[in-house]
Amino acid sequence: MSLFDHSRKAARTLALALVLGTSVGLQACQVQPLYYSGSSTHQMLSSVAIKPVDERVAQELRNELIFLYSGGAGEPSNPEYQMTLSVRGQSSRALREDLTNGISSQRYSAVATYTLTRVSTGEVVSTGKRRVTTFYDQNTQEFAKSRALRDAETRAAKQLAEIIRADTAAILSRES
Asked: How much is the pTM?
């Protein structure tokens, strides 16, 4: 046997050991989606109750969060966590008047503030503040104007719900 054959055999043995070591190391990894229905994060999200609100956009946000947290099953009967929500919204012009040429584009900005509390201890787990902006066209018809604003508010509530759900999932996944 020549020196070349020995080095070739050693290289094959080293490559085989490297592949086996890597596969054993990768078996220890357990990567799963954050919202996987069998995960503890999903179960923790479904145990979040949201306090009632009295404003329309906040109610849209609350309803969307309840649906996202529970997967459509509704509010939990014995919640482990309680969320308090408040939403502020404001409509304003998106463009200066001299740039519009008769088209009036508007923006609706919404800011949601939330507090997540553990029910058993009353401990505040997290607080957050999220902002979104949606756009809509202003029309000369009154009904079209009010409907466009309402649609923009609903879009903003849905976007806020997705962001707050992601925040809450990340927070609760660290809790477990």
From this structure: 0.74
The one-character DSSP state at 105 is E
Classify residue 52 by burial, with Cβ atoms within 10 Å: 0-12, 13-18, 19+: exposed
Per-residue pLDDT tens digits for 136-155:
988 778 888 899 999 999 99
Model pLDDT for residues 20-69, shown as the tens digit of each residue: 766 655 565 555 555 455 557 778 888 899 999 999 999 999 999 999 99
CA separation for the pair 68, 117 (Å, rounded): 18
Q: How many CA atoms lie within 13 A of 81 on its CB side?
A: 24
DSSP-assigned states of every residue in 24-70: HHHHT-----TT-TTSHHHHHHTTEEE----SHHHHHHHHHHHHHHH
Angle at 132 between CA 45 and CA 174, to 5 degrees: 30
Write out pLDDT tens, residues 76-86: 889 999 999 99
Strand partners, 48: 81
Helices 56-70/142-175 angle, 10° precision: 40
- CA 142 from chain centre, in angstroms, equals 34
